Amino acid sequence: MNTKSKTKTVLIFGPTAVGKTALLEAPVFHNSEIINADSMQVYRGMDIGTAKPGMDLLSKVKHHLIDIRSPEEQFHAGDFVALADELVTDINGRGKMPVICGGTGFYFKNFIYGLPDAPPSDEAVRKHLQVELDSVGPEPLRKRLAEVDPVSEARISANDNYRVLRALEVYAVSGRPLSDYELPSKPRAQYDCLLIGLNREREVLYERINRRVDIMFEQGVAEEVARLRKSGCRAGDGGRRGCREDDPGMKGIGYREFFTAENEGLSDEQLRELIKRNSRRYAKRQITWFRQLKNINWFAPDDIDGISSCVELFLGENDS
């Protein structure tokens, strides 16, 4: 497949608070539509804690994959890739530039390379594992995973019970560890992707993160969490229920810490500092993850001219 037959797609990524959203107001993106690649901005009612784009930007540049799930629902990388594929085709077909923008690294990696060829979910096996998790807690399942798939166990963060269950499910269904199912080694053939990475000096980035958390509290993130915990999730009977600590949306930074504060008796100031610390650590992990990708064009977010020239050059390639 030659470059002319591929769909040109711009991918913009960087750590939390680096300035991705503000960049989208640059004139070079005015004929674009944005596909959100932030795993928490897909959830309804979670606006302040996820720093969703404001109405001013949304009125200028159309955004997709924001507010498409309720916080009790899972949203997997496979869901993202399937929806992003549809959107890129649609946006490009209408003569606009598809731009995928966010900070969830594995969304970008799976979009570029595709998904591992692991077996699909088995409802009966998953239900059995979920019952076991609810009965005995995560530690026995984590220990079992370490025995059958130590590579996956080492990769999965401490509170990510969903990925533990998925890895055990794959082993139960196939007899093979999930870590055997690696990502394809070559990018998917249908896309010609421009990768733009955004970063700042660490001290500057951390100052921006700390300030963002302060702004979150000024804007009412505590009240937002209280509303979510009262009636932010859908109940099985079609009504509403309060969001719980184990709901997928509540595992995001800026939300899970409220449960920690309640469980451990933290003060308001300790809660705020915990969110700042976790956000800084997350930013460090994001940068490490993004550096695994190839052919990244790194910019400071304020280098609008450089970024614009890079995008314009990319769009002009092979047009003649």
TrEMBL record:
- InterPro entries cross-referenced by the UniProt entry: Dimethylallyltransferase (IPR039657), IPT (IPR018022), P-loop_NTPase (IPR027417)
Q: Where is this region: Interaction with substrate tRNA?
A: 38-41
Which Pfam families does the entry mention? IPPT (PF01715)
GO molecular-function terms, A-Z: ATP binding; tRNA dimethylallyltransferase activity
Q: State if Magnesium is listed as a keyword.
A: yes
Query: Which sites bind substrate?
Result: 16-21
Cofactor(s) listed in the protein's UniProt record = Mg(2+)
Taxonomy, superkingdom: Bacteria
Positions binding ATP in this chain are 14-21
Keyword set, alphabetical order: ATP-binding, Magnesium, Nucleotide-binding, Transferase, tRNA processing
Catalysis performed (reactions): adenosine(37) in tRNA + dimethylallyl diphosphate = N(6)-dimethylallyladenosine(37) in tRNA + diphosphate
GO BP term (any one): tRNA modification
Report the EC number(s), separated by commas if there are several: 2.5.1.75
- Per the UniProt record, the site (Interaction with substrate tRNA) maps to 104, 126
The protein's assembly and partners: Monomer.
Entries under NCBIfam families matching the protein: miaA
Alphabetized HAMAP family for the sequence: IPP_trans (MF_00185)
Q: What does this protein do?
A: Catalyzes the transfer of a dimethylallyl group onto the adenine at position 37 in tRNAs that read codons beginning with uridine, leading to the formation of N6-(dimethylallyl)adenosine (i(6)A).
Q: Which family does it belong to?
A: Belongs to the IPP transferase family.
Can you say what this protein is called?
Answer: tRNA dimethylallyltransferase
